[in-house]
Amino acid sequence: MEARVSVIEKRLKNIKRIISVASGKGGVGKSLVASSLALNLANKGYNVGLFDLDLYGPSSHVILGVKGQGFPEEEKGIIPPKVHGIGFMSVVYFTEDKPSPFRGIDVSNIIIELLAITQWGSLDYLVIDMPPGIGDETLDVIRLIKKSEFLVVSTPSKVALAAVSKLLKLLKELKIPIIGVLENMAMTKSSFIQNEVGKLGLPYLGSISFDKNLEESIGKPDRLLDADFMKDLDKILEGINL
Amino acid sequence: MHEWALAESILVAAVEAAEKEKLKTIIEIKISIGELQQIEQDIFEFALGEIIKSQGGKLKNVKTIIETEKSTLKCKNCEHTWDFSDMKKKLNEDESEAIHFIPEVAFVHTRCPKCGSPDFEIMSGRGVSIISIRGER
After folding, report:
1. Distance from CA of A210 to the nearest CA of B (A)
2. Three-state SS string across chain A, please?
């Protein structure tokens, strides 16, 4: 009998809200939205954690400028190191950022181990940066983190929406709370995504314009907080009381 | 000292199982720890003892037996099999420590010793599990 799963609920007990930033599609800006959401909330004075669950291609550490941190401190488990005021946990502390060729069963075991040994303490928000798709990580979050809500990211593209709508339909079928769909990298005025999300009976949260200067803020949380991307995100968060 | 977190997971799982089986007290828990976890057994035992002492209840008089599950790794590419002692020879201290935290990062820091493939399988020797629980109704 696997023992680690039983303690996960206890580890997450003192977290008020858990928000998984997800998408059916890769490359839509999930990590940027997740990291920016965490930074935004921490900047407003909330106690925030960020958990990068993209085990193959973690990138939140790149966005937050985390380098050569070493292993997290141990105290009855592992303590997420503070990065710009955010308790940040990622597999990169253990992989030295080397290629990570994991199969599904290994992904599940890593998620279980990290959830069982990470001591988040009391948080207002835990933001989870999800990998793309509806594979192991998504299924494990649904199975192991019962109180997670999903914030889903799409781009204006029909191609992105085709994959994103599969995630949305699955979450709806499983009655998982969906905060809504955020449209990222908008370049022209179009109501395509808004209409499609409406057809699924889900909230459309708004759009973030393509920010051509955003790359200059990567790895620099202070600049990211001032970026146009963050201003658009902030308006969306205001609309959903975050 | 993440041994504490794992010890706690054992006891939470045991109490949960005992409640399901309507056991009034738990007499014995047999625990299996994968070799790849490289658990420091004295720390793990200390943590078990401390948590049992503070929690009492069904666990008040429990005896814990810890077994280590030997590791076997098998290459999906060439079918070669090996174990952690073979693997450890090629690991530096940090890589070994990383595997201690998360056994699956073995796929990141090691390769099949015969063909060099990263596509191998952990057949046994990871995780923390309960083999059996004995108690009284």
Report:
1. 35
2. CECHHHHHHHHCCCEEEEEEEECCCCCCCHHHHHHHHHHHHHHCCCCEEEEECCCCCCCHHHHHCCCCCCCCEECCCEECCEECCEEEEECHHHHCCCCCCCCHHHHHHHHHHHHHHECCCCEEEEEEECCCCCCHHHHHHHHHCCCEEEEEEECCCHHHHHHHHHHHHHHHHCCCCEEEEEEEEECCCCCHHHHHHHHCCCCEEEEEECCCCHHHHCCCHHHHHHCHHHHHHHHHHHHCCC
CB contact under 8 A, B107 and A76: no
Domain count, chain A: 1
Q: Name every residue in B having a CB less than 8 A away from some CB of A.
A: 1-2, 4-6, 8-10, 12-14, 16-17, 31, 94-95, 97-98, 101-105, 107-109, 118-119, 121-122, 126-130
- Locate A233 and state its tokens: 């995100």
A177-234: per-residue pLDDT in tens?
999 999 999 999 999 999 999 999 999 999 999 999 999 999 999 999 999 999 999 9
- In tens, the pLDDT along A111-121 reads 999 999 999 99
Q: A-side interface with B, Cβ within 8 Å? A: 1-7, 10-11, 71, 74-78, 91, 94-96, 98-103, 106-107, 109-110, 113-114, 116-117, 119
The whole model's pTM is what? 0.96
pLDDT of residue A29: 96
- CATH number assigned to the domain comprising residue A95: 3.40.50.300
**pLDDT tens digit string along B91-106?**
999 999 999 999 999 9
Contacts of B14 in chain A (CB under 8 A): 3
Q: Which of B6, B98, B127 sits opposite A94 (nearest CB)?
A: B98
- State the residue range of the domain holding A173: 3-240
CA distance B62 to chain A (A): 17
